[in-house]
Specification:
seven-stranded antiparallel β-sheet, single chain, Jelly Rolls, 19 strands, 3 helices, mainly beta
């Protein structure tokens, strides 16, 4: 009897020892949250520039919808045109590509493939097309889509950082080729031309009476390294029956009514152009780009 009891006690001890030694399946299937799972690292904080690229920052002080009013430098305006380039493609309800004719003195051409949208910005590029043996660049306009006489016109642009081509925000108003009425019936208004990344040149100008022997113009230039600093700057123009005013980052740069103030509607253009005015171009710098954050146009509130 004692032997039987001893055998039973011995068997019970062996059973208890076995259950303590074997790990449970449930414990073994769950990795340690710190060691066996994916490595956890601190997420780096984004810079202000990265935040702006990831999400559209809405300036609540500005009109966001057509027909809304906005005070600009003490005057009331109504928003008549707005493109923030928030789509992944160029909006044909706002723009068309400029025709592919030869430009300036280096045989460059405007080409639709040099215009695209990237990360909420309009990108205009300059390339050298080896097959066509010519320079090509981006250019768009609002001709036949949006045309307006008088008001306030503005874009935010990051200009190029290499020479050989210029970027421009400008308007073609009325019949610029007409001769005999000065600029009243037609004027080219150059709101801005960033014409040389080596000399940091910015130009504002008026052109009228065509582009041949009767051509007339008046303009002014400034040389501003700070406008070629890789950041966006605003370029705008106020057009009233009394004259034109040009602004950079809200600062008045020039006033003129040369040729008589045009009284005909005009359309806006954003273009790049290769030419000697912009200095020597280096193929190793291409492709090169200019970015536009937005384009806005307003009409005087009392004219609505």
């Amino acid at each position: 009897m004692k032997k039987l009891i001893l055998l039973l006690v011995f068997a019970l001890c062996l059973s208890l020892l076995g259950s303590c030694a074997a790990p449970s399946n449930s414990d073994n299937s769950q990795p340690d949250s710190k060691n066996d799972s994916e490595t956890v690292t601190d997420t780096p904080k984004k810079t202000d520039n990265e935040k702006e690229e990831d999400e559209e920052v809405i300036d609540e002080t500005r009109a966001q919808n057509l027909g809304e009013t906005e005070n600009i430098m003490g005057e009331e305006y109504v928003l008549t045109f707005l493109d923030n380039f928030s789509r992944s493609y160029l909006s044909t309800s706002n723009w068309e590509y400029c025709p592919e004719w030869e430009r300036a003195d280096r045989g460059g051409k405007w080409d639709p493939k040099c215009t695209y949208i990237d990360n909420g910005k309009l990108v205009l590029s300059v390339i050298y097309d080896e097959e066509a043996a010519c320079y090509k660049s981006g250019a768009i306009r609002t001709k036949g889509i949006f045309e307006q006489a008088y008001g306030y016109f503005e874009c935010s642009m990051r200009v190029q950082n290499v020479p050989g081509f210029w970027s421009a925000f400008w308007m073609m108003c009325g019949n610029v080729g007409s001769v005999g009425s000065d600029g009243v019936d037609g004027t080219e208004i150059d709101i801005m031309e960033a014409f040389n990344a080596q000399t940091y040149g910015i130009n504002h100008a008026l052109h009228w009476d065509g582009y041949n022997e009767h051509h007339k113009s008046e303009g002014t230039s400034e040389y501003r390294e700070d406008l070629y600093d890789g950041n966006f700057h605003t370029y705008s123009m106020r057009w009233s029956p009394e004259g034109y005013k040009w602004y950079i980052d809200g600062e008045l740069m020039w006033e003129s009514s040369a040729g008589g103030v045009c009284n005909q509607p005009g359309y806006m253009k954003l273009t790049l152009e290769v030419g000697s005015w912009a200095g020597e171009i280096n193929l190793s710098d291409l492709p090169a780009t200019v970015e536009v954050d937005y384009v806005r146009a307003y009409q005087f509130a009392d004219k609505q």
